[in-house]
Structure formats: C-alpha cells, structure tokens
Hints:
Blueprint lengths: L2 H8 L1 H20 L2 H32 L7 H33 L5 H30 L11 H12 L1
Amino acid sequence: MNEAHLHLVVNHFPIVGVIFGFILLVGSLVFRNKTLQNTAYFLFIISAIATLASMRTGEGAEEIVEEMPGIGHDIIHEHEEIAEKMALIMYALGGLSLVGWYLNTKENAKAKWVALLATLVSITGMVLGSLTGTSGGEIRHTEIREATTQSPATHDSATESHEE
C-alpha cells in the first residue's frame, strides 16, 4: 500500500464526517439533545484527525500521480490549495468541538453559543469539503472535469503516451 492508496482511504472521512456531524448538530439544537450534540462533536473531532492523516498522505500521493499522463501539476496544485483551506477549518472545528464537549459536560451556559458557532464553521467545512472532493476527483476522473480544464493538447498527449 503506497501513499496514494492511503490518501484515498482516509480522504473521504473528513468530507462525510463534517456532513453527518452537521446534521447531528442541527438535530441536537432543534431537539435540545446534549447526547446528539456530543455525538456531533465526536464526529467533528474524528474528522479533524482524519483531515490530518489526509494532509500527511497527500504529499506522497502527489509525488506518485503528478507525472502520470493527463494529470499535470496545475490540477494537483488547485486541489492542494483548497485542501489546505479545508484543513484549517477542520482543525478549528475539531478544537471548537473539544471546547463544546467540555462545556456540555460542565453544563456551562456558553455551550449553546459554541454549538451555534460550530454549526457555522461546519457549514464552511462542508462547502470546502465539496470543493476539495471535486478537485481531488478531477485529478484522475477526467470525465468530471469542466470542459475549460481539458485542453485538446492535454488529451492528445495523454492519448499518445498511452498508445506507446
């Protein structure tokens, strides 16, 4: 198992985790359920850890795929830039979730404000997760690239390289 394979194994969890965590967090606010809220915080914390693993394996994955025909440095760089922004948001959400979890256990009145802030941060995480996942998928899945990112020259050189 190489770094590219490891990256593919771990990179989906932050995206899916922030979505499910958001759903649970909103549900916890609607139903005023601290158990649901703590479960959302737990998912956010695990998602932040998975983000760290994804970022760590991303460099190795880049080294493996960047020289492949039809890939190129530009598309990987775009994915990397978006992923770095998402990582910062996910780390902040993980830290905020630790604070929220602690405040819930102490039954602190500020816990509700932390939950509302975590909801907003998780929305940002979902948007960046969508962009990160799409840009990552475009690296190897040329069928989902927008027409403007696929130049005929790139396609022709990829085809020629494949035919050799």
